[in-house]
Amino acid sequence: MQPKEIISVWVASAFIGVASTLYYTKISEALAAVIQFGAGITAFTAIALFNGWITIEPVDILFYAGAIFVIMFIIFLAFYLLSLLDSRKINEKLKEK
What we know:
Layout: H1 3-20, H2 29-51, H3 58-96
């Protein structure tokens, strides 16, 4: 790996991190999730093209973007389920009082 590849991944990750701050605004969580997914897919696909990891062929771009979506969705789902479990534990403790 070259330094430019590492830095480009950092930039894409930072872009997604900035997009995730939308959850702390007054827009709906659904819209924030759509924007974050869009930002992530766009950022990582652009970085893959920039670094030559994929070709500019539409099939390659769509396949890569789809793979990024699946990965992001799995991560999103894991965090959602962890939050749901935490909420249940908190609610159970509140009911005990």
